[in-house]
TrEMBL record:
Keywords: Hydrolase, Membrane, Protease, Transmembrane, Transmembrane helix. Belongs to the peptidase S1C family. It holds the Pfam family PDZ_2. Residues 432-503 form the PDZ domain. This is Trypsin-like peptidase domain-containing protein. The lineage of its organism: Bacteria, Bacillati, Actinomycetota, Actinomycetes, Pseudonocardiales. InterPro entries: Chloro_Bact_Ser_Proteases, PDZ, PDZ_sf, Peptidase_S1_PA, Peptidase_S1_PA_chymotrypsin, Peptidase_S1C. SMART domains: PDZ (SM00228). It comes from the Bacteria. The chain crosses the membrane at residues 167-191. Residues 1-125 are annotated as: Disordered.
Amino acid sequence: MSQPPTPSHEGDEEQRLRPRPIARPSVDSAAASAFGRPRGVEGSFDALSHPGSATGNGNAPGNGAAGPVLAPPTPESLAQAFGRPPGADDVVLQRADGTDGGETGAADTDEAPLWTSEADPWRDPGAPAVLGRPAVTGSDAGAEAATAPGAQLSLPEVLFGRRVKPAALAILAVIAVLLGGAGGLVGWAVATTGDELTGELDVAEADAAKERPAGSIAGIAKRVAPAVVSLEVTSGRSGGVGSGVMIDSDGYVLTNHHVVSQAAEADGADIAAVFIDGTRAGAEVVGTDPKTDLAVIKVNVSDPVVLEVGKSSDIAPGDGVVAVGSPFGLENTVTEGIVSAVGRPVTAPGENGDANVTYDAIQTDAAINPGNSGGALVDSRGALVGINSMIRTVGEGEGGSIGLGFAIPVDQAMRIAEDLISDGEVQHADIGVNAASVSAGSSEGAQVQHVQGQGPAGKAGVQEGDVITKVGERQVRNAAELTVAVREHEVGDTVPVRLVRSGRALTVDVTLGSD
């Protein structure tokens, strides 16, 4: 950059500073090709892109004088749609309030229009669009709206949204009458189907009965109940009720001795067997065994339902059982429980001076009450496993169930029933002693109180005062268990008997006799 000349004296021209040479650095060829001027262009802008900057005049090509770039001509369609109408060059864009709305659009008030063609400095003089006058002035439109009410809607227009011909309305009325008549006929037919208040009830019933799983209590009871009968014993003015189980198709019924003892001992006593369907039939006593509280009677029926006999030796504590009988004369009562214990020796006083009843019982908590005696105790398959016989109660007199019921095992009961049916009597193995428990509630054994002189025990050397603790393979813990342990064997069997005498244990062999 050159500096301005400084004053100097003559003769000092050689001391003046000269301008520095212009530094023109080399230009990169890549940058020059990207940002440099096109070939043939010397100025800052390309004059060829502006028609007015080329040779010629105005907008015509070839005029060298520069001029403004004007807007292109307005298309004829836009000019016709938005242009001023002929003779409306003086119409203003917007009138002030109070204009008369005349053809010329001039204002009658002193206030000047907001915009006019002369006063609007921003308006393009070449723009063809202009705002025409309104078709109806505000005052005239309000007066006409206030004084000219609209036409009222007719009923068809309200209902159908448009005018409807009278013929169509007549057809609709006929259709409505027909539909109403049809509905009335249907209602009359429905109302007259029944006979007023005494009509016949039509109840929808399910096609299938209630579903019950296999082995349900209801299914067991349905199979067992027809084979369990209710027994009514009448002897003079006295009588009793109990239950029995049909065990043979010839009409043999197994029951308890104490149920039919009056009929077996008294003349003129009657026994009636009542089946589940209400059929009543007479019965006769075939034989009884007071020592095990069992009896067999025969009922005069043909083709009775017989209960399937199971095996009591297969059951165990905890197995489910069902008791079926007639407690307190309520026929075919079903109760359910479990086996509480097996091999439970129980004893009870005999009927009318008979010997004590002693047997190896099945203990159950199924509800057993007076009248259940002689009924069936069945397992989960519905097979007979015991004959209900007695219960343990509290208090004096006849009591109800407290969850301690006892049944005679069917294995023992069927052996006795076969003997009664074939011979009319039963023989039990006997050891030939009278014994008592060592002490009440203890399990120390059975102490011998009396020995028959020529009985089986006397011949084997058993003495009074000996305490028997084992018979064969079975432990003896009290007097009742001594009896059932001996009866497990047959008459004439020789079994080892372990006893304690004067604190010394010894074993003797006893050949069992008959009672």
